[in-house]
Amino acid sequence: MFDRNRRPRRLAALAALTLVAGCGLLSPGSPNDDPIVVGTTSAPSTLDPAASWDGSWELFRNIYQTLLSYPYGSTTPQPDAARTCGFTDAANRTYRCVLRAGTTFSDGHSLDAAAVKYSLDRIRRINVSGGPAGLLANLRSITTEGDREVVFHLARPDATFPFVLATPAMSLVDPDHYPAHSLREDGRVTGSGPYRLTSYDEGEKAELRANGKYRGLAERKNDAVTIEYFRDSAGMVGALQRGDIDATYRGIAASDVVALQADQVKDGLEIVENPGIEISYLVFNPEDRWAGKKAVRRAVAQVVDRAAIAHKVYKDTVRPLYSMVPAGLVGHTTDFFDDFGEPSTSKARKILAEAGITRRVPLTLWYTIDRYGSETAPEFSELKQQLEDSGLFTVALRGRPWKTFEAGYRRGEYPVFGRGWFPDFPDADNFVAPFVGKDNALGTPYPAKEITDVLLPRSRGRGDRGTVAEDFAEAQRILADDARLLPLWQGKQYVATDEDLAGAERALDPSTIMLMWELHRQTSW
Description:
Elements: H1 8-21, E1 36-40, H2 57-63, E2 68-69, E3 78-79, E4 82-87, E5 94-99, H3 113-126, E6 139-145, E7 149-154, H4 161-165, E8 195-201, E9 205-210, E10 224-229, H5 233-242, E11 247-248, H6 254-267, E12 269-284, H7 294-303, H8 306-313, E13 318-320, H9 335-340, H10 345-354, E14 361-368, H11 376-389, E15 393-400, H12 402-410, E16 416-421, H13 449-460, H14 469-482, E17 485-498, E18 501-502, E19 520-521
Parallel strand pairs: 1-10, 1-11, 14-15, 14-16
Antiparallel strand pairs: 2-3, 4-5, 5-7, 6-7, 8-9, 9-10, 11-17, 12-16, 12-17, 13-17, 18-19
Helix pairs in contact: 7-10, 13-14
């Protein structure tokens, strides 16, 4: 069962630990100096939180600190850099945090109320295009009271504001090292998280070491982590199988997941499956001649076979999704299934005929070739085949790298395009609000006034997030009727590790970001 010949580096480390410990055995979870090596295909685009609204958050969660974060097993933000936080008014417009006493950054500088205000004001002041400033659109001002109290004044009631503060975008930075009006560009980090970033080779490797000055929720079970960035799943999985790395966490291709599951006992590996709330969906441009027609969108919704995509392309490592709000969150429904049922060409033909459309509808579907994994192109090939096999559509496919793809959809160039969504926080609001309104995240204005003017404001006035189901159910009904956004699938998250590594089952937070401090070697048997 244990193929020890393929792990000489790990054996040497264990031997050294045994010598240090004498005849005794270290207990599981005992920190040690030998780095745990984790592989991922999600390399940071920046080291500065003011510029990041992307996968850079994976690193940020481990080297920076936020006022609130998520303890294991909770989907409700709890104080981290703060000692206490809460709304001070019934209207959910004034939010107050009191910081932990004696908290410092890794360089010893004080993490005080002024540093918190500086960090968040800096995000809004720099306002990087595509950056996180939009998350603070409802923040009117920040005031401080002494060294430890910070008060956030909101323009409108918003019970989701604690979730915003818990995102890695709101990471706290040392004012002495981060310019007020521009990004930090020296390739270094000064944070207050569980780890210090001691070395960084862009796109290749990040070396993390324990931050002895950290004060917060995380209970670190190791002293050092090295993150290696891979170009693709095959290279990453090969490194795991050779014993060059101890774990992988984001970017494992579906075929590799299936292969690892089949061979995990033989290879001395363990695959941990976690529920995920990542979603994939299509966006229809209302300005396009054909995609702008409601009947065309609803006919596409009637033809698309999500189960076939999940099974044929993703090997059942994703699940069909019939709502923009994923399963597991308050507000999830199955409106697209309720409205359209099983895929049906005859029903789709009737939808088009009733709108006076009797010819094949020409559509061009766009996707990014380097953002969401190697299955994206096969997924769009499957969509093309499904639509054309109905006899109702003629489909062309186009792919672009992410940077030019994103610029293109923001300019309104694409009739239909595919997007994925890794949530900012685990609340239904974050699967609806970013996609509707004039200045939404998709660059295609969607004036859904009942959602933007009634349902979202009403739900944000409710501090108990368990009571918002009715509002989001109504929002989902509107979205399904319009079919401007077509949900396709909801992801699962897989962590693959060497069987000697423990903690993977605890290592993903509610936004599916890996908490490196949960990983540790099992050093007794």
